[in-house]
Design goal:
single chain; Rossmann fold; 5-stranded parallel beta sheet; about 45% helix
């Protein structure tokens, strides 16, 4: 079984279109086990009950932004070592450095292509095929 088919991914984004673009990209390269959350709080709750291998999260979300979600995941035993990719149109150095302090694994700038999404995911989890 290809690695992509074994991988469980959480996509957290408050924008339906962005969630679907990420999900479509993941599905296109064989990742079928994808959960979605409409904000960081919902993603955290889902991760506490059913952890995934990788979280792909938007930065700018209501209630709990991507960095706050990352911090919360790193503070809980079942999720402290999960892979984490931050997706944002605001790719300034301070944001990325803040994420790295909390264990950010990778960063994907918006807009992105399916190929850049794939490369970003593979840099965190390894080759998907």
């Amino acid at each position: 079984m290809p690695f992509a088919q074994q991988l469980r991914v959480m996509v957290a984004d408050d924008t339906t279109v962005s969630r679907m673009l990420i999900c479509d990209g993941l599905w296109s390269f064989g990742i079928k086990d994808v959960q979605v959350a409409q904000d960081g709080e919902q993603a955290l709750k889902l991760m506490m009950t059913s952890p995934c291998h990788l979280v792909i999260s938007d930065y700018n979300m209501p209630k709990m932004d991507g960095i706050q979600l990352l911090q919360a995941l790193r503070q809980n035993a079942p999720t402290k070592s999960v892979g984490f990719i931050l997706v944002t149109g605001r790719g300034d150095r301070a944001l990325i450095e803040s994420g790295k302090r909390f264990g950010l694994n990778n960063f994907l700038p918006k807009p992105f292509t399916n190929e850049s999404l794939r490369l970003c995911v593979e840099q965190v989890v390894g080759k998907l095929t």
